[in-house]
Amino acid sequence: MADVYILGIDMTRFGRYPDRTFAQLGGEAALMALDDCGLGARDVQIMYCGTVFGAYEMTGQAIMREIGQTGIPVTNIVNACASGASAFREAWLAVKSGVYNVALAVGVEKTPRGMLGGGAETGIPLEGLFGSASMPAVFAESGTEHAAKYGTTFAQFAKVSVKNHHHSTMNPKSFYQMETPLEQVMGAEMIAYPNTKLMCSVNVDGAAAAVLVSERKARELGLSRAIRVRASALQSDPWNPSNPMMPDVNTVTRLAAKSAYEQAGIGPEDVSLVELHDCFATAELLHYENLGLCGEGQAGEFIDAGETTLGGKVPVNVSGGLLSKGHPLGATGIANMYEVSLHLRGEAGARQVEGAKIGLTHVVGLGTASAVHVLEKA
Fold it and tell me: Which of the chain's termini has less CB crowding within 10 Å, N or C?
C-alpha cells in the first residue's frame, strides 16, 4: 500500500477557555491545519474527532458545522488520553486503505479542573481498599516501584519537570512558560510521593488537527513540507492478574513501540526526537525504558546525563510536554505530532532539534490504550 502523508497540521495554544465550546476550539484547529496546506473544508472526504469530555456532544459533526457542513462521514472516538491519536490513526487507515485521498483528524478537549480518576460510581467502592485508581496515585506507585527496583531518586524524577518547563519557555503555544529550578520542583506541594504539584500535568483546554493525504494527492499538491507517516501502532493491555488493583502503565507502551519500530523498519537509535506521555514526571522516566531510548533501569542516569534535554542524544518533550505545555486529553496525541512535524520541517524556532529526520510520538490512555507513531520528513 502507498504511503500516507501529513500535509497540514496545527494546534491552538493550550489554556483555559471557559467561554468557548468544543466545536469552536476544534473548528479553529481544523481551519489552521487546512490553511497550513492550502486546502478547504470542501476538500476533506472523511473526518475523525477524538475527545473524552465532549463524547456525548457529537463533537465531530459540531466542528464540521463550524468550518463547513459538507455531509462527509464523521466518526467520534473516545479512547481516554489516546483519543486524539486514535482519531489520527483512523484517518490514517482510511487513506491507507485507498478509499479516501483526504482525511481530517481533530483532537479537542475542555478538561475539568481538579484530580482525574478515582473510584467506581457503582457497586462496592474499592478506592482506598486496594490502592487507588486516582491518576496521581497510579503514577506515584509506578515510580516508587521503579525506585525500589533500580534506585531511582526523587531528584531524578524531579529533573523531568525542570527539563520540560525549561523547554516550554521556547514554545509560544505552551500553557506555562516559566523556569522551575530543581529546588522549586522538589519543594512544591506533595501530591503523591514522589510527584509534587509541579511534577503533575496541567489540566487545560485546547485542540489540534491534522490533514492526512494519499501519496498521489501529496505529489499533486507538493511534498516540500509533507511529513510521511512511517508507522501507526495502537495496542491495548493484555491480561495481567494484578490489573484490577494495580494498572500496568508499562506493558501496553512496550507493545505499541515494538509494533511501530517493526512497521517503520527502524530502531530507537534512529529517532531524532520524542514527544511522549509525561502525564506525571515518574511516567516520563518509565517511558524512556518502555520506548527503548535507554536500557532497563538506566532512566535515572539517562536524565542525569542530559541525554533527553534539547541538544542531548534524543531530546524528549521539547514542546514542554504535558507537564508544562498542558494536557487537554483528547487533543494531546495530535498536538504531539504537531510538535514533531515542526522539527522535521525545520520550523520549530528557538527549540529546533537540529538535523531532525525521524520523530516518535507516544500517548497512553489508561483503561488501556497506547498509540505510537513514527513520522519522517518526506
Answer: N
Annotated domain spans of the chain: 4-114+202-377
Length of the chain: 378
Residue 245: what pLDDT?
66
**Catalytic residue numbers, as ranges:** 81, 327
pLDDT 10s digits, 46-56: 999 999 999 88
Taking residue 235's Cβ as centre, other Cβ atoms within 10 Å add up to 21
Domain 4-114+202-377 has CATH 3.90.180.10: no
List residues bridging with 362 in a β-sheet: 372
pTM above 0.90, yes or no: yes
Cβ-Cβ contacts under 8 Å for 198 (sequence gap 6 or more): 161, 165, 180, 184, 185, 188, 323
Q: 272 CB contacts (<8 Å, ≥6 apart)?
A: 314, 343, 353, 355, 356, 357, 358, 359
pLDDT band at 341 (very low <50, low <70, confident <90, very high): very high
CA nearest neighbour of 160 among 61, 79, 322, 281: 281
Q: How many helices (H) and strands (E) in the chain?
A: 12, 11
Percent of the chain scored above 70 by pLDDT?
Answer: 94
* pLDDT averaged over every residue in the chain: 94
Cell numbers found for residue 38 = 492550502
pLDDT score at 377: 93
Rounded distance, CA 263 to CA 189, Å? 43
Cα angle for residues 348, 351, 356 (degrees, 5° grid):
65
Closest among 124, 284, 92, 268 to 201, alpha carbons compared: 284
> What is the Cα gyration radius of the chain?
19
